[in-house]
Design a protein that fits this description.
Elements (H helix, E strand, L loop, with lengths): L2 E5 L3 H12 L3 E6 L10 E4 L2 E4 L8 H10 L9 E3 L4 E4 L5 E4 L3 H11 L4 H23 L12 H9 L6 H5 L6 H6 L20 H9 L2 E3 L6 H11 L3 E4 L3 E7 L2 E7 L2 E4 L2 E5 L14 H7 L9 E9 L9 E4 L4 H9 L10 E4 L14 E9 L7 H19 L4 H4 E7 L1 H6 L32 E4 L9 H19 L2
Parallel strand pairs: 1-2, 1-13, 2-9, 6-15, 13-19
Antiparallel strand pairs: 3-4, 5-8, 6-7, 10-11, 11-12, 14-17, 14-18, 15-16, 16-17
Length: 489
């Protein structure tokens, strides 16, 4: 029975541990914080509790299939579909409601931009088969060599998906109205990328919303953590919290274990679950070749975000669960963030209002709200000087455009900035791992198997296939299958 030790108890580490232990492996899980979960956590205060990180559940079947394979019954995951999926508020006062139902969506598109429903149908038809082929070619397999990407079939598929175009440029092929171009490309922000920078491959994100829906985990996404932890403990997985890994044990280019809490732990394989560039400081300093390969300055972090959590003594019965508030030009606003590395004068922001779908999300007559404001990662903004004005601006805009009476109703508030995210271990304070750029995607993204150190593996948002909870889980599945089938058959 192989001994596999995992450094990091985020969703990738937990899913890998579940899949491996299900196959009989002896698994140890080490987490630096006092609880498991990583980005899946709650922000709590004054009787309010809301997801601290991810909120939008995409690709529900992928999530449920992987959990089922890991031994978690599908019936134990309380998923609820969001209908509508979300509402987009434009600066000109118009709104677009996004529906999974095709007829409803076409009617809504025609209301906002007459003639646009034909573009929507073409978009869905073109993307449907592309998603199926793209998943098999890029999500269901690793790329240990870059040459594995450049097969004839893959190159044809990349051309068909127009991966050489940006997600925004690809949306513009189907929609003429700038508001709809925004609506069908802003989803790259879910993984910390700009629509005008993320390659067309990521157009599969807005497509997946319409094909598979947007979902909510009752109780919050972070409520999955105790469920997974209970299953891990029932199998005898060796869980250590409050144990930070300080050094990997390398012997002749082979990883034999790591130091955690001042003590050496050894295993037949080591899995690193954390933002990959942070793996370098725990590598043996004598490994100069590894330092050259993994130096963190060659990576580009995703965008950061300012997160505002608020508890209010008021509810908004007609407010949707997920809402986006856009400035006069989303493209210009995002160029400030992604190109100029400054805070935009007119920021866009997202609001999560779980009370719209979950009556237990806040005390009766109250709401727990979450505001996400895209911004540059560290170290480009002086957060001590800029945060208060940014938050006030966004709350004022939210009140004016969708949440009347918001500011006077707030009885609890907490704010997190990229500086806090960096302190918590996110690479340069980027909230979503490595940025989804062409040269940080597929074969160009770090893989779960280290290229030079035998016995060292990785999982997480910065590892192929990328960020987002179901996609990180898919990466854990690829890793577990490799270890079970190729390393310890």
């Amino acid at each position: 029975m192989p001994r596999i030790i995992i450094a990091g108890g985020g969703i990738g580490g937990m899913i890998a541990a579940l899949l491996l232990s299900k196959q009989g492996a002896d698994v140890g899980l080490f987490e630096k914080n006092d609880k498991l979960g990583g980005r899946l956590a709650f922000q709590e205060g004054d009787g309010f509790r809301i997801d601290q990180g991810p909120t939008i559940v995409l690709l529900p079947e992928m999530l449920l299939d992987i959990l089922e394979e890991a031994g978690i019954p599908r019936a134990s995951i309380p998923l609820q579909e969001c209908s509508p999926m979300h509402v987009i508020h434009y600066a000109d006062g118009t709104r677009l409601t996004k529906w999974r139902d095709t007829d409803k969506q076409m009617e809504e598109l025609e209301r906002l931009a007459p003639g646009s429903s034909n573009g929507f149908l073409r978009y869905m038809d073109h993307m449907r088969e592309g998603f199926k082929l793209g998943k098999a070619a890029f999500l269901d397999r690793p790329f240990f060599r870059k040459s594995h990407l450049f097969t004839v079939s893959n190159l044809r598929l990349l051309a068909r998906l127009r991966a050489y175009r940006s997600t925004r440029a690809l949306a513009a092929r189907y929609f003429r109205d700038e508001r709809l171009v925004d609506a069908f490309s802003l989803q790259t922000l879910y993984i910390g990328g700009a629509p005008f920078q993320a390659p067309g491959l990521y157009t599969l994100l807005p497509y997946a919303e319409h094909e598979y829906g947007v979902w909510y985990v009752k109780g919050g996404y972070a409520s999955l953590v105790p469920l997974l932890e209970k299953e891990l403990r029932s199998r005898g997985v060796d869980i250590h919290t409050g144990m930070e890994v300080s050094e990997l044990l390398l012997e002749n280019g082979i990883c034999r274990g790591f130091i955690a809490g001042g003590k050496a732990y050894r295993g037949d394989a080591v899995v690193y679950n954390g933002d990959l560039p942070h793996r370098l400081p725990v590598l043996n300093e004598a490994e100069e070749a590894l330092e050259k390969e993994e130096r963190s300055d060659k990576y580009v972090p995703s965008s950061g975000c300012v997160l505002v959590y608020a508890g209010t003594n008021k509810t908004w019965p007609n407010a949707a669960t997920h809402q986006f508030f856009l400035p006069p030009s989303l493209n210009d606003s995002l160029k400030d963030i992604f190109v100029k590395k400054t805070l935009p004068r007119n920021p866009s922001f997202y609001v999560f209002n779980p009370s719209a779908i979950d009556k237990d999300a806040a005390p009766a007559g109250h709401s727990a709200l979450y505001f996400l404001i895209p911004c540059p990662p560290e170290p480009f903004v002086d957060w001590e000087r800029e945060t208060a004005a940014l938050v006030d601006n966004v709350l004022e805009e939210a009140e004016r455009r969708g949440f009347p009476g918001l500011r006077a109703s707030i009885v609890w508030k907490s704010v997190r900035t990229p500086r806090d995210a960096k302190r918590d271990g996110l690479f340069q304070g980027g909230s979503f791992g490595l940025a989804p750029l062409l040269l940080q995607s597929a074969a160009f993204r770090p893989q779960f198997k280290h290229g030079k150190i035998e016995g060292l593996y990785a999982v997480g948002a910065s590892i192929h296939p990328g960020g987002g909870i179901p996609i990180v889980m898919q990466g854990a599945k690829l890793l577990a299958h490799h270890l079970i089938e190729e390393v310890f058959p």
